[in-house]
Amino acid sequence: MIASRSLLADALLLALTFHACISNHSSGNQCTPAHAHTFLTVPAPHPPAMSKAATIHRLVSDPFKPLLSGPVKRFKWPVLAHTGIADSLVTTHFAPRDFKDKTVLDINAGVGLISQALVSSPAHRPARILAFEAEERLRPLIAQYTVPHAEKHGVRMSVHAADHMAGSAFFDDLRNSPTMLGNGQGSGPDPALVRKWDQEPVVTLVAALSTKLGDLNVSQLLRWMGGRAGVHEFGRVPVYIFLCRSFSERLIARPGDKQYGRLSGLAQALTHVHMLDCKPKGVREFYPFKTEVDLLRLDPKLDLPFKHCTFEEYEFVLKTLFVNKSIPLKEAIKSLDPTKTSLAKLLPPEFMDRPLMVMDVPELVQLADAFAQWPLKHEFHEIGSL
């Protein structure tokens, strides 16, 4: 019996070895005892899953791996660090008419890959790029990799600290940019007033806004549009903006949505908001990779919807009333009018039983226009707050 089992095992081994020989011979390999032995051994286990650091190392472009995959590197805004993704975003979502032969302001430029992609695309290639980056560790990388690439293609490019935008030197420099001269801009007592709001803008802004200060940054950007100040003194400057999802959802939210609020009303009153790139949840292309980032285009409206109110009054009304956005207006209005009757007389009666979160932008503007005409507004609110 034992001999029979031994013969059976030898026969099985011979059959398997013969099968291995046939397989290797058909593929052009020589069958050796070593091959036969390998065929019969247990397959090696799968390699272990890549560590988080290794995954980051694989995702980002070579020059930036040491910076972003080191121990605990965190930035206040999303940083794009993959050249292929930057090229894809530019060619797919950036309109050439917004960039070709214009001045581009790249705010929170990270390592400069969006600017580099714009320069690499002949259809998008701007005349000048001003990159602004607050993180001191990142500015040398822009100067090392992106600026020479831009100069090679005839694009003027400079790198600045973020606070450079707050100084008068920035606006003087921008007014005298080659793309400004001959386009209704130039040196003078107030050259910004020469450019009309309905003229084609020669400046485009690209920004990756802070994940922690996103509310303040977006509000400031919208105030520039409303007051035609900041970069918007140079006309109806379009804005390509990278925002973490919690803020992008608030900008595009519609009446009745959970995210609908003050930022929704501000953005949609002043701009046409276009969602250009919204990756499915879990697809992350920016560092830190746990942040989901969307790309939006804010196109300032040619005609603002306000009839009687200023932008400051509109923002004040939204900021005050949206605190209680889910209760009927007849109850929420006491934060504006403690009497609850005086201001209500200027509003359509059907407004009073509706919560603010279901009112669309024209209705919100109508509220602000009524507040602007209300004789008692300075009795209950400080003038400085308006």
From TrEMBL:
- Signal sequence span per UniProt? 1-23
> Can you tell which superkingdom this protein's organism belongs to?
Eukaryota
> A GO molecular-function term, please?
rRNA (adenine-N6,N6-)-dimethyltransferase activity
Class of enzymatic activity (EC top level): transferase
Q: Which InterPro entries match?
A: KsgA/Erm, rRNA_Ade_diMease-like_C, rRNA_Ade_methylase_Trfase_N, SAM-dependent_MTases_sf
Q: What is its EC number?
A: 2.1.1.-
Keywords, ordered alphabetically: Methyltransferase, RNA-binding, rRNA processing, S-adenosyl-L-methionine, Signal, Transferase
Alphabetical list of PANTHER family matching this protein: DIMETHYLADENOSINE TRANSFERASE, DIMETHYLADENOSINE TRANSFERASE 1, MITOCHONDRIAL
Provide the species name: Catenaria anguillulae PL171
What name goes with this protein?
rRNA adenine N(6)-methyltransferase
Gene3D superfamilies the UniProt entry points to: Ribosomal RNA adenine dimethylase-like, domain 2 (1.10.8.100), Vaccinia Virus protein VP39 (3.40.50.150)
Quote the subcellular location field of this record: Mitochondrion
Family assignment? Belongs to the class I-like SAM-binding methyltransferase superfamily. rRNA adenine N(6)-methyltransferase family.
Function per UniProt: Mitochondrial transcription factor that confers selective promoter recognition on the core subunit of the yeast mitochondrial RNA polymerase. Interacts with DNA in a non-specific manner.
One Gene Ontology cellular component annotation held by this UniProt entry: mitochondrial matrix
Q: Which Pfam families does UniProt cross-reference here?
A: RrnaAD
Chief localization: mitochondrion
